[in-house]
Each structure stands twice: as structure tokens, then as C-alpha cells.
Amino acid sequence: MRRKRTDYITMPAADASSSALRSLVDIAREGFSSALVVDGRHAFEEVVAAACSAGLRAAAAYTGDRSASPCLALAAQGVCIGERASDGVFDDGYLVLAAAETAGADALLLVDSPLADDAEFVGMALGEGIGVFAIDAARVTAGAFGGATKAWTSCVCEAGLVRPVQAASWRRCPRCHGAFGVRAVQVAGDVCPRCGHHFRMTSAQRFDALFDAGSVEPLDGVSDGGDPLAFPGYAEKLAAVRAKTGLSEAVSCAYGRIASMPAVMCVMDSTFLMGSMGRAVGARIADAAQEATRRACALVVLCASGGARMQEGLASLMQMAKISCALRAHADAGLPYISVVTDPTTGGVTASFAMQGDVVLAEPGALVGFAGRRVIQDTTGETLPEGFQTAQFALEHGLIDAVVHRDELRCALACIIALLAPPASTREAASGPDALSRALERFPSAREARLMEEEGAAHPAAFAAFEACRARLRALRMTRPRRSSAPAARADLQENPAWKSVLTARDTARPTALHYVACMVDGFFELHGDRASADDAAVVAGIGWIGGRRAMVIAQEKGATLEERIRRNFGCPQPEGYRKSLRALRLAERLGLPVVCLVDTQGAFCGREAEERGQGNAIADNLKELAGLRVPVVSVIVGEGGSGGALALALSDAVAIQEHAVYSVLSPEGFASILWKDAARAPEAAAAMRMNAYEIFEMGIVDTVLEEGEGSASANPLLAADAVRRYVEGALAEFSAQDAQALIARRRARFAKF
Known about the structure:
- The chain has 754 residues and is α/β, with parallel strands linked by helices.
- The protein has 30 helices and 25 strands.
- Strands 10, 11, 12, 13, 14, 15, 16 and 17 form an eight-stranded mixed β-sheet that branches. Strands 18, 19, 20, 21, 22, 23, 24 and 25 form an eight-stranded mixed β-sheet that branches.
- It is globular.
């Protein structure tokens, strides 16, 4: 039996810095006889050698890739704890304690290890009679461990954390296979401290982490969906699961507040029959949607389900339709619905309410798909790629809006609700990012409040999500002027201002649309994908505040670097980009948000596949939608405005153009090729089409020309952005005061005159 030491374990963790420093000789004199050296970073022979010199039996933890380390020859014993040091095994508390047991060590010597600050790990080590000592790697030098040198710190913790290791003390990660203290995982928000894997959470944990402390009102009125098929053993299985989980069904619903803003939340729990959807689940979610409609607030559903509940047959299938009807009524009331896809979400849930959100978020690594991976492989015989049906896969294919880490989920929900929910219900936090940040600070979640109480208000874990939100909500300002690559003014360009404008608009140093978004929009939250097949990076859509006014922003983005321009297809949208903008337009109309469009494209992408996917149809749908949109629409041409690809975002109440931007029926090269069969006559074509901004203004095509300062926007990015911002803010103030019918009539009359 190891002796239990209690003479140094009752010091509060907060006082650890005041504990006396020790030399290895001091440690040996205190009665420790055998030490395990844990050093996964530098493998200093000096630590092992000094421990032996101090009279300790020194063992060394090592990995397979360090089996030839000289320090192992000095150690009395080597204990292999993994294949590679880079796998993080030296920071795995479970492996370190197991190695200490193998070595028979009664002391741990931690070199530059995060385990020294893990109070739960220290408590378990002390509970096993193992002293824990730590040193900063910077202090490990040859000869630094003489009897008089005091460099080692005793790791301490509160007495309540000192307890023997039990099986329930650990939680093993299914991805990296590391084992971590249960409390360490809980403090991290049920996220693996090593690889970031998101563990599955119960409904109670979700409410605890997302709702403001003390604001939760349960809404679970339906407790039993019955047994419509009289399925053998189903009633008994339900009873057993209810007894085991303490839940009455696979979803729990509640009304509460997120950063002071009201919301109804439904949380599916995979511990209850894998979150399968039966009649009770359908009734609860439908009732919750109706309650959110009655209270005129946002609805949030966290999905985790294997799909329909087979034991209820067609009655289960009908829940897809039942919930969809309730969600449509909620949408018709002009209220937002946010879906959060967690692991796993499959089958009928994916094919209904999980993907019907106005905004669909997903946690990293979550499984999301309709048919199961095995079913697809067995049916098609195809080997599916790595990462298939993950949240990241769904984002790349335009099926969801964002992948959000659990630490940022509460903040992301607060931001979206503040931007999309009715102003009357979000007064505390809706006026902008600063107000939202203050609300998040004033109204912590139950989990954050508990962490603050346990660890102190300054504990970083308590406000990790809050700080991440503040960083996200602060708009990035571009202050670095870029060197222009536009040609210097020549005599021929002076005589042909239209061609000069073309060259200036194409200048690769010219600020792109995202520069204006960064300088004009606060708290920008980007929405991704067309919800069908792809996320076209040439079109950026999102919500944010412009001058304190909530707005939808849609921008054509070329990219600021060559790599980014390639990724964004040089700003030439595909059909999926226009379908993304169409989705954004419809969401803005339904929730009463004005729309701001930033135009910068040579034109819609011309290619066989784009034609096959309906490029013309996608542009046509945008134009039709804009012609009848019941909210203000303001467009600014900030670079090239090429053909129908540009007009798809410029059928607006007001259109402005920067003085060195251009707008035309076709590129000058295309114009010259069609009419004169000679693309080299592009400068002549530019003049013929009158592509200069002031000529376009004289024709009445645009309402105003925005000056860019001396030279162009490339030389004056902030001045140019300020002119765009002031124009947009003024236009939004003017048009937001008009009713929908007047807006539509004015917009149609504007284009009828051409």
C-alpha cells in the first residue's frame, strides 16, 4: 500500500504560487523515494540525472519515437506511454498516472506540463499518495539541481478534490482515445481538451450552457405519445429508458432567455432511444413552435437524432409534416427559427426540421445526413470519402450556414437572435455589438455563473465564450493601403476615360467588397450556402448592423490575394452564388431587414457546368425577387458591374457607383468580339458603351457617384469606404421610412423609365 500524504494537500489552488520552491534533494528528504519524470517536450537528461543524484529512484516516461533518447539509459526504468510525443500523450492524465503506477513512483516530476495546473489531476494523484512537482522548462539547465537550488514547485489543490482514482473519474475521447478527468472535460464545455472533439450532451446540460441563469421555464406538456402499432416490447422499452435517463421523452423544451433575449428552445437527447422521433417528440416540438409564435420570440432547436422511431411506424413519419406546418406558421409570423445540428442528426429529422432553420448551425464533427453511411455504401457499392456527412462536409456543400465551436455557440445564438428577432423582444441587446457584449456579460448562463462561483470571476474558462464573441463581433478594419498595380495615366487614357475606368476597376490592389463590409458592418455574421449543393465563395451574404440598423448584406467578392481570387472564382458567381443571394433576399423580406448589395463582378461565370446547373434561371429568380421585395434595397457598384451577373444584385431602390467603377451590358472585350470580331478594340468598345461612372450617371442608370479621393480607392481605402458607408446609411434611413407598397411602386417606376 502506498502511504497517503496529507501534509501539503489542503492549500487552495489559488495560493499555489505562494508554495515554497524545492530542490530534488528536498523532495527526497521529505520521504519520497521514487520519481517518474514526465517531459514530453525536451527530454532533458539533466532531470533524470539530478533525480538520481538526489537519491531518488528515477523512472522516465517516453514514447516510441523517443525510445533512443539518452535519458532512458540514465533512468532506473522506462515506461512507454504511447507511439508519438506529438499525440499529446504526455498531457494525458490517465496515461501519466498509469505510468506512475507501473513505475511504482510516489512522486511525479512534471517538466513544463499543463497537468501541473489541472486541479482534478493533481487531486487524483494526491489521492493515490503520489506527490506532484513541476518546473518550468526554461529553468532546466545543466547543474541546476544541486542540493541548494530550489526550482520545483509543489502542485496543490483544494482538499475536496483529493480522492482516489476510480473508473468514473475519467472520460475517454472516442476520436483521439485520450482519457481526461471528468471535471476537466466539464469545465471545457464537454469538449476534449486535446483534440477538440465535442462530446454528446444531455438536454439539461444544454439548457444549463445556453440559457441565462435562472430563466428556464419547462414547456414539456406532452409526456407520452402512446403505442400506435402496439409494437411488441415497445412499452416496456420506453419504461426502461425513462427509468435509466430520468427523461420522459427524447426531446425537452423550455422557454428562457439568451443574453436577456427571449427564446423557446427544444433540445433532443440522444441518450433516449438515440433521440428518435415519435409522436411525443413531434407534439413537443410543434407545441414549442406555437409557443414561440404566441410569445413572438425566436425558436431554437438543437437536433440530435437517429431519425424516425421505427416502433411507431407511419405515425412517426407524420411528425415531419406536423412539425413543418408549425414551423411555417412561425415563419409566417415574421419570427426567426435557428436550427443547431449536433451529433448525430440523420434520417427524417435531417429531412425536415433540422434543415428548415432560417439559420442552420452545426457543431464541429457532428454527423449530419439523410441516409446512413453504411446504407449508402451497401446500396451503391461506393467507398465514401473521409469526412463524409460531417458538419464540415455539409458546410462545404452549402447545406448549413456555419460550423460553430461549442464555446461560441451561446454567443452565436445571441448574435443571430439580436439581428433577426423582433426589436421589441431584443431591446436589451439589439442595438449593436457593444450592447450585445454587455448583455452577455450581465446575464451569464447557469454554467458560466457556476464556474465563476467555483473558480472566481477572473477564471478564464468562465468567460472564454464571451471573449470569443467580443472578438467575433468587432468588425475588422482594413487600415493598410495597398500598392496599386493600375497603369499610370497616359495621354490615350486621358482621352478615353471609360477605358481608364475599366483598368482602374480591375486593379488587383483595389479594395474588394469585403473591405467595405468590414468598414461598414458591425457584428457581421456570414451565412453560407445555397442549401442545395454548394457554397459559392464569389457571393458573400450575412447579417449585421449598419449605423445601428440591422441589415442583410450581399456582396460579390473577388478576393484580395491570388489564392483567394482563385478560390472565389475571381468574383464571377456560379448559379449556387445567386441561389445563396436569393435565400438571403427571402430571409430579409420575411424578417423585415433592409438589404445592402455590393456589386463587383466581370459577370456571371460562363461555363458548361454553370449552364447545366441553370445559371440563367438563377439570375432570373434574383431579378424577379428583387422586383417585388417588400424591404428597402440599396446597391453600390464598387468595382466592375458586368452584365446580368451584376444586375442580379442591382435591381434596387437606389444604385450608387464609385467614381472609378464601371457598369456595362458586357465586358468591353466581349462587346468588341461580338460587334467587331476583334477583342483588341476593347478600349474603343468601352468608350462606345460609355462605361465611365459620370457618363453612366448622366444616362440616369445610377443615382449618384461616390468619390474615391485623389487617385482611386486603391490609394484611399478608408476614405472610399467612408463614402460608401455614409451613402448606405443615408439611403437606408430614407427608404426605411417608406411602406412596402410605396417602395415597390417606386422601384418598378425607376426601371420602367429605361
